[in-house]
Amino acid sequence: MDEYSLTLIELEERFSTEEACREYLFRLRWPEGFVCPRCAGPKAWPSQRGLWLCADCSYQASVTAGTIFQDTRTPLTLWFRAIWWVTCQKYGANALGIQRILGLGSYRTAWTWLHKLRRAMIRPGRDRLNGEVEVDETFVGGREEGVAGRETETKTLVAIAVEMRERGLGRVRMRSIPDGSANSLAAFIEETIEPGSTIRTDGWKGYGGMDGYTHEPRPIKGSGLKAHEMMPGVHRVAALLKRWLLGTYQGAVSSAHLDYYLDEFTFRFNRRASRHRGKLFHRLLEQAVAVEPVTYEAMVKGIRGKPRAKRRKRRSHARLAAT
Question: How far apart are CA 175 and CA 125, in angstroms?
Fold first, then answer.
């Protein structure tokens, strides 16, 4: 069977048992053969408990330990079906939909699973964008009255970078930023774009003084063009992002978790040309065994190491029902 040609029927046939799922995870986690997590020994024997006994140090290694599947009490067969459903749907799936389709016992379980998967959608150490790159910001959130420009009271500012190719758009990167200051924008650019690249921006002063890059500012004012005509790439991506958030999650995404939804959008957008949905299934599982586990308590108490504001705690929990 083709590794990437995976329909629902093929999924049911290929991963109908826990043993089949564990064997697949084993190959993804140790593609060159077993490596002991403790001593790096290359040999091990399988045990009746589903563990691997290291021949050198007798450490009992689990194929799920240190992955998003760590300590799960749910069969891996159900996890695989959840991952297949998330990746085969063009616009993704929300927690309520996953709960209903898989018959999960609680909404909280479905919500936790999706957020674990979002943490696996971005590969650690991924390559930065290069070549000609458009950079701009957009606000995510509801309408506000009495504010203008880059001012906001309730919305979240999101920085977007898009590779511009001859045949259209390339890869994207995006992240929420605290403000449109030079420090915030420079940090985003250094993190996401390879030095030596050409960066196109509007005339905002926050983009001044970017060392190591060729900067091509395109001020909108006085150009006779509209913003989306001057910067077509980032405006198209921003529009797609907002449409996706509204269509899949009804726009009810808390700012505390927004970065992980941005990761999901990036994962989907950068693989939009993939011919096989099964390849996305394979890639997500491949990255799922490479990221550290995280508990539900850690998800709701802190976001990427930063404590949540107390005044937003009640509001964020109320929004979980829609995400």
Answer: 16
- Return the SS3 of 321: helix
What tokens does 229 get? 């005509």
Residue spans of alpha helices (H) in 137-226: 182-192
Sign of CA dihedral 35, 38, 43, 47: negative
Which among 261, 264, 238, 254 has a CA at the least distance from the CA of 154? 254
> In this predicted model, what pLDDT tens digit does every residue of 91-147 receive, in sequence order?
889 999 999 999 998 999 999 999 999 999 998 789 999 999 999 999 997 554 554
Residues 6+ apart with CB under 8 A from 266: 121, 122, 172, 173, 174
Query: Interhelix angle for 76-88 vs 107-119, to 10°?
Result: 70
The dihedral sign for the CA sequence 218, 224, 229, 234: positive
CB atoms within 10 A of CB 101: 13
pLDDT at 45 over 90: yes
Q: What is this structure's pTM?
A: 0.86
Cβ-Cβ contacts under 8 Å for 53 (sequence gap 6 or more): 44, 45, 46, 47, 59, 60, 61
Model confidence pLDDT, tens digit, residues 86-102: 998 888 899 999 999 99
Domains of the chain: 132-243 (3.30.420.10)
Q: What share of the chain is helix, strand, coil (3-state, %, to 5)?
A: 40, 15, 40
Q: In sequence order, what DSSP letters do the residues of 48-101 get, joined into one string?
A: TTS-EEETTT--EE-SSTTSTTTT--S-HHHHHHHHHHHHHSTT---HHHHHHH
| Under 8 Å between Cβ of 26 and 67 | no
Cα–Cα dist 122/291, whole Å = 9
**Could you please report the per-residue DSSP string of 224-283?**
SS-HHHHSHHHHHHHHHHHHHHHHHHTT---GGGHHHHHHHHHHHHTTTT-S-HHHHHHH
CA distance 251 to 317: 15
Sort 155 into a burial class: Cβ within 10 Å, 0-12 / 13-18 / 19+.
middle
